[in-house]
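Morning!

As promised:
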Amino acid sequence: MLVSATEMLKKAREGKYAVGQFNINNLEWTKAILLTAQECNSPVILGVSEGAGKYMTGFTTVAAMVAAMDKSLGITVPVALHLDHGSYEGCYKCIKAGFTSIMFDGSHFPIEENIAKTTELVNVAHQLGLSIEAEVGSIGGEEDGVVGMGECADPNECKMIADLGVDFLAAGIGNIHGKYPENWAGLSFETLAAVNEKVGEMPLVLHGGTGIPDDMIKKAISLGVAKINVNTECQLSFQEATRKYIEEGKDQQGKGFDPRKLLNPGFEAIKAKVKEKMELFGSVDKA
Ligand code: 13P
C-alpha cells in the first residue's frame, strides 16, 4: 500500500523503533524489498537517489513500476516511495511523477537559502499529501583520501528547519555514506541528544546506515531516530552472492546463464539483509 512516510515515522518515533529506508536500483531490488517488508509485516521506505532514478530511465518509470508492483504483489504493509537527497528540481520531478515522499537536501546551501527552498517545498508537498524530509549538517564521506568525520549539525539550525513543518529531519551526527573508515570516530551522541532536545517529537533520520554497529543503532533509536537509511550494505550483499554464483561456475551449468537464475542469489541476499535490518531496527510486525 503506497502511502506518505508521515504516519509510519510518527508511530516509529512513539514506539521507539525505526523504519528502514532501502535504496532501489532496479526491478530485483524493488521486488526483494517489497516482499521482505510484507513477510516481516513491516512498514518500509523505498529510497531513490537522483542517480538511480536516471539509471531507471526517470522518476516516472520508477513510480509506475513501484505502484504496479505493489499492487500485483498484493502488498498490504505501508510503503513510501521517497526521493533520497533530492535537489530542488528533483523534488518537483518526483512530485509530478507520483512519489509519496521527498527529501530536499539543502544542506550545502547557506541556511537562509535552505530555509527558503525548504519552506516552499513543504507547502507544495503537504498540499499534495506527500511527506518531506530536510537535512542540516552534511553527511560525511571519504574523498581523495581525506577522511571527514561528517559535519555535525547545529541543533539551533535543526530547530529552525524543523519549525518549517518538515515531517522528518536528517541531522549530520558524524555519519558517513558508504563503508566507514578504520579511524571513524563513531556517531556523535552528544549532537544527537542536543538535536533531539531542540526538535521535540520530530522523527530523526540516520543516513549512512551501512556498517554502523548494532549498539550504536539502538542508542540512536533511543534518542529519537525513527528512520535509518541503508544502501551500500544491500549492494555488497548482492555483489557477494553474485560473485559466489559465478566463481562456483553455476552460470555455466545447464541454464545457469538465464538472467533470472543469475540474478537470483543476489535477490535472495538482499532479502536476507533487509530482514536482518528490520529485526535490528524493531520494525517487524509494526505494519
Ligand atoms: P549507506 O550507503 O552508507 O548505507 O547510506 C545510505 C544512505 O544514507 C542513503 O541516503
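The longest strand covers residues 44-49.

Hope this helps with the figure draft.
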